[in-house]
Amino acid sequence: MTTPGDEPLLSLRSHIYAVQKMGELRHVRGAHWDLELGGIAEVSYHLPHPPAVLFDEITGYPAGMRVLTGSTGSSRRFGHTLRLGDDLDDAGLVDALRGKPSQWAGSARDFPVAPVDSAPLLANEVPGEKVDLLKFPVPRWHEHDGGRFIGTGCFVVTSNPETGVHNGGCYRMEVQDDGRSTTIAAVPGKHGAQNIERWIAREGRAPVTVSFGHDPLLLALGGTEVPGGVSELEYAGAVLGERVPVVIAPDTGLPIPAGSEIAVEGWLTPGNMRDEGPFGEWTGYYSGRRRPCLNLEITRLYHRDDPILLGAPPGRPPHDYSYMRTVMKSAMIHDELVSMGVPGVSAAWAHESGGGRLFIAVSLEQRYPGHARQVAHLAAQCPAAAYMNRYVVVVDDDIDCSDLEQVIWAMSTRSDPDRDIEIMRYGWGSKLDPMLPEGAPAYNSRAIIDACRPFERRADFPRVAESSPEYLRGVREKWEHALR
To answer: 3-octaprenyl-4-hydroxybenzoate carboxy-lyase-like Rift-related domain: from which residue to which, for each copy (predicted)?
Structure first.
């Protein structure tokens, strides 16, 4: 891919160019949209150094109509996405991110969107009656998906009808009506779903715009708990340090990022429903049976010449955005615990094997009786972790909470199940939960596991059988030749 030149802010092409310069982009030509793109992407997520993959010459489509996967799947790519640096490792990225979400949220209103009259997105405008989303290489990602999902890395814009504040969310979207429309499976309780409900209650319909190709910063923010009342587009401006240029969609009045590759605008109405799903979700399971979902009546479609679709297919971890979510959640949970005034918290880690939500570990320096339980309960219900969290494990600060083997070792040797496991009930669950019976309310329970040395036994608890870090450092230096 050539130099981006005068690409708009938040252009996907600029991101692809940067990833190619890092040497982390792979080109795949000739794959089929039906399962093969998803299968290749799935294989790539399990490689020792997962690359971003740009698909071109997709079967049945002209060259130039492309799909990108794995956009944020390494510390370098995600560090670049968050504008924190291109050469960070995992720990360095989380450290660099610490404190930033609250700073960005606090300054978001200083970066209102900047409407523009021209953008590459406007090169092609298609009226609603002529829309065919299947003119783009929309994949069927997983073998048992109910259809072709154009929305996996999308950015769905809604607004609060009372305040006018925009929200940007990332929801799965299945192509319907032979390409003329698409369902939007907004997650109940999320800000986008609340906006849709408010509009329908007030006006009988809800305006929506959707971008299907953009800088993955919008994917990251659309899938993160940005505080209520804060626009994700303004939040993105705070990350970038400049206002995000947008095209104002004429039918709905909502913004579309000017750097978008493909976008639509339209309306959701309660009488316009289509069956949707199942879909291979981030929990690693297909999400239940096919069920009715709000369907978007598209009034206009816009796209660049040779547009690129941003794909972010979930599945059994690791998947497309599990690394991204792990990094974001780990930093946000740590920050929220510190902001509550809890002393001694060393680190937090939302493990990728739990999709960045289901399994959270926190390390701390114990300072008083009950300290570990306090941290565990707060971590289980803090805003960044409250949605669909299932296990919180608290460990001493000699344990690297990002290392699952160390966490399991601490659980196995420093906790007594009878004393150290507590159950919280009626937490914020999800219909995506494979343990939730069909039709049941979306509650979940969560386990609190205190895997710290008992506070009263810290002084006489058995010594760990390992050499000191200083001694091992000297051994490595002396015997490096024999240990290569």
So the answer is: 118-317
Q: Alpha carbon of 408 to those of 80, 399, 415, 417, 462: distances in Å?
A: 32, 10, 10, 13, 18
> DSSP code of 185?
B
309 strand-pairing partners: 67
**56 bridge partner residues:** 29
Q: Matching CATH topology for 12-310 and 322-457?
A: no
Classify 281 in phi/psi space as left (phi over 0), alpha (psi -120 to 50) or beta: beta
Peptide bond into 318 cis (omega under 30): yes
pTM above 0.70, yes or no: yes
Residue with tokens 């670049």: 80
Q: How far apart are CA 66 and CA 309, in angstroms?
A: 6
* CA distances, 149 to each of 225, 266, 278, 279, 427 (Å): 23, 18, 11, 9, 30
Question: What is d(CA 299, CA 252) in angstroms, rounded to the nearest whole number?
Answer: 9
Architecture of domain 322-457: 3-Layer(aba) Sandwich (3.40)
pLDDT at position 223 is: 87
Chain mean position to CA 66: 22
Q: Read off the pLDDT of residues 345-387 as tens digits, 9 standing for 90 and up.
A: 999 999 999 999 999 999 999 999 999 999 999 999 999 999 9
Q: Where are the domains of the chain?
A: 12-310, 322-457
The CATH fold assigned to 12-310 is Pnp Oxidase; Chain A (2.30.110)
